[in-house]
């Protein structure tokens, strides 16, 4: 059974060490981007460094993290107050002005069941399209959005796919897609 949002208690996954997943790509620089996450979620180890390098973002403080979980760099947004985000909000309706960021990252739960079982937030599950839509509003023209998910979202203008990467934590594990998008500059008449 799930828990109510905002109880202040994080569910614990007994199989998780809470320090990140192993990684099977590249050789990014080590940095401290997130705290331990005993609930079992989180980016693969070194993924954030690789993503920032791919996005050509030299300052992690410039990144908005939607569904931020245990992230400690950049501006963090999460619906769960117990994760101590900068902004407690649903990632589909972030209380920030339009065109506020050049870089946005998101690693949301991959299904409503996953959200419910892991975090107790199944009733607030954001679809990849909904997350992309809000990221589009928050991005400045030319800004980039990276979504780590099991689905590549439906893309609508002004967003455009830059690339899609396969990410896995090892043999025998599911592969996820990291979809890198950018906000196009729309011509005005």
Lay out the secondary structure.
Elements: H1 47-55, E1 63-66, E2 75-78, E3 87-88, E4 101-106, H2 112-119, H3 128-138, E5 139-149, E6 159-167, E7 176-183
Parallel strand pairs: 1-2, 1-4, 2-3, 4-5
Antiparallel strand pairs: 5-7, 6-7
Report on this model:
The protein is α/β, with parallel strands linked by helices and 189 residues long. It has one domain: Vaccinia Virus protein VP39 (Rossmann fold, 3-Layer(aba) Sandwich). Helices cover 15% and strands 23% of the residues. The protein contains 3 helices and 7 strands. It has helices spanning 47-55, 112-119, 128-138, and strands spanning 63-66, 75-78, 87-88, 101-106, 139-149, 159-167, 176-183. Strands 3-2-1-4-5-7-6 form a 7-stranded mixed sheet. The longest helix is centred in the C-terminal third of the chain and has 11 residues, at 128-138.
Provide a quick synopsis of the model:
The protein is α/β, with parallel strands linked by helices and 189 residues long. It contains 3 helices and 7 strands; from the N terminus they run αββββααβββ.
Q: Just give the CATH class.
A: Alpha Beta
Helix content: 10-25%
Q: What's the β-strand tally? A: 7
Q: How many domain modules?
A: 1
Structural class: alpha/beta
Can you list the strand order of the major beta sheet?
Answer: 3-2-1-4-5-7-6
Which value, in Å, is the CA radius of gyration? 16 Å
Please give the count of helices.
3
- Please, what is the average pLDDT? 78
> How is the main sheet built?
7 strands, mixed
% residues in beta strands:
15-25%
Low-confidence residue ranges: 1-13, 19-34
- CATH-level-2 architecture: 3-Layer(aba) Sandwich
């Amino acid at each position: 059974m799930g828990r109510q949002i905002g109880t202040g208690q994080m569910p614990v996954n007994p199989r998780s060490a809470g320090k990140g997943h192993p990684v099977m790509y590249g050789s990014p620089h080590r940095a401290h981007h997130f705290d331990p996450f005993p609930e079992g979620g989180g980016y693969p180890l070194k993924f954030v460094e690789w993503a920032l390098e791919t996005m050509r973002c030299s300052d992690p403080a410039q990144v908005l993290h939607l569904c931020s979980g245990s992230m400690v760099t950049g501006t963090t947004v999460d619906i769960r107050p117990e994760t101590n985000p900068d902004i407690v909000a649903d990632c589909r309706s972030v209380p920030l002005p339009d065109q506020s960021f050049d870089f946005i990252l998101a690693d949301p739960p991959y299904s409503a069941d996953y959200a419910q079982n892991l975090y107790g937030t199944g009733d607030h599950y954001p679809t990849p399209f909904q997350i992309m839509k809000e990221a589009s509003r928050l991005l400045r023209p030319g800004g980039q959005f990276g979504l780590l998910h099991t689905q590549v979202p439906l893309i609508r203008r002004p967003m455009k796919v830059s690339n899609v990467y396969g990410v896995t934590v090892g043999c025998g594990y599911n592969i996820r897609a990291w979809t890198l998008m950018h906000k196009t500059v729309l011509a005005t008449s």
